[in-house]
DNA sequence: CAGAAATTTTTCCGCCACGGCAAGTTTTGC
DNA sequence: GCAAAACTTGCCGTGGCGGAAAAATTTCTG
């Protein structure tokens, strides 16, 4: 394995991560723009400037390539939760890191541009694909495991005997999903941030850390 | 279309339903016994005595073929809910129909036979397959729609303006999923019926129909 | 009941997904 | 530098998937 957890990433590792995210992003972009059915692995490989075979070395298929970006974000959230000052209250830390990832660059509040609408519709359609949903379920399970560990570490409890961390992870995951889905279907379009913020605030009230 | 909703099913329709369930059951059996990866559509078609192409005329793939049995059961539950006497309290009716479908032929309570264990393990493995999970998500959405309509019809409310029916459908669906998953992982093995029964009882208390 | 009409099943065919294997390249570590 | 390790690539066989038209079956009609 890699004994060092982070900093001195060799050139090789950096390049790998680079192509990995490039492939994932390319897959998402093409599928949102053209629709799931109208994208072949060959198209994706072409956009990312690698061979078809290389795409397959990274991902087992379009679905996994798309879900990968989702996993990365969830894992990043768990990591950032660990990086928060230990003195900060649990739910303040959670709200902070989650909103930092999902808040995004606040859209100009005015009327939605035609291209923004096309993108939203494309994403919604893409997310409806069963092949992708399955992969997302899998991704969420993995991500929630990591998040639960981060929570357990923070409040100093054993994840094996205390369900609280898992509960928090599951609930935060569910809230994120609902918020995203809401922002994709709401009319007029709504930003994810504020909705998610209110949800987390309510959840925090009901789920204060056990004494 | 078919103006008559049911009874006088022609020979043709009967045969179609027959091969449909035959294909679905064959797919489930083979995948549970051999594992998802080790089953080709050709194998399934062979078992069901039809051509590979015919399998494809019925289902888009293994996943859909398996999920089909699940959908049928859920839709059957919704139908049976409609058939219950209108005087029966809502949650009594729900509990009745759900347990009738999920109760199954009560297993002999003694030690689990080796083959029963293999089956349980096979099912658990199969259900972990992302391709299948996606299809199940889709199936649940459809089934819950039907169930919600049945509930709305029963308590005489408009499903478009009242969330109660949808809530009940979602909750019953979730309880069913959890109960099944629990019965597949619990040690020692547990029957679905009793677990589900208790869950529904609790839910009924919290979700009495709105005045 | 024969023959037409409608529908399903099957055969044939091509495209794409998927993954093992054996070069060909690039990065790493000494 | 140079050899080993790791990554990329092309090749190719198996299987999933679906369009199109022939063959078989059921249903309809005179």
TrEMBL record, chains A, B:
Cell membrane is among the record's keywords: no
Residue span, HTH tetR-type domain: 17-77
Keywords noted in UniProt: DNA-binding, Transcription, Transcription regulation
Xref: Pfam families: TetR_C_14, TetR_N
Residue ranges for the DNA-binding region feature of this UniProt entry: 40-59
Stretches of the chain forming a coiled coil according to its record: none
PANTHER family cross-referenced by the UniProt entry: HTH-TYPE TRANSCRIPTIONAL REGULATOR RUTR (PTHR30055), MYCOFACTOCIN BIOSYNTHESIS TRANSCRIPTIONAL REGULATOR MFTR-RELATED (PTHR30055:SF238)
Protein name: TetR family transcriptional regulator
Organism: Streptomyces millisiae
């Amino acid at each position: 394995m890699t004994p060092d957890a982070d900093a001195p990433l060799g050139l090789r590792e950096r390049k790998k991560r680079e192509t990995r995210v490039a492939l994932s992003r390319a897959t998402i972009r093409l599928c949102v723009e053209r629709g799931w059915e109208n994208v072949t692995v060959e198209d994706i490989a072409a956009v990312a400037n690698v061979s078809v075979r290389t795409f397959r070395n990274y991902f087992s298929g379009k679905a996994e390539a798309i879900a990968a970006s989702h996993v990365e974000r969830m894992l990043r959230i768990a990591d950032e939760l660990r990086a928060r000052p230990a003195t900060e209250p649990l739910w303040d830390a959670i709200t902070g890191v989650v909103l930092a990832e999902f808040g995004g660059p606040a859209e100009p509040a005015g009327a939605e541009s035609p291209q923004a609408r096309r993108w939203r519709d494309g994403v919604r359609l893409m997310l409806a694909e069963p092949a992708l949903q399955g992969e997302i379920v899998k991704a969420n399970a993995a991500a929630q495991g990591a998040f639960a560990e981060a929570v357990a570490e923070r409040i100093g409890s054993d994840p094996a005997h205390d369900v609280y961390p898992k509960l928090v992870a599951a609930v935060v995951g569910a809230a994120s999903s609902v918020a995203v889905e809401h922002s994709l279907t709401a009319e007029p379009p709504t930003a994810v941030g504020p909705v998610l913020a209110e949800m987390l605030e309510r959840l925090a009230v009901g789920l204060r850390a056990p004494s």
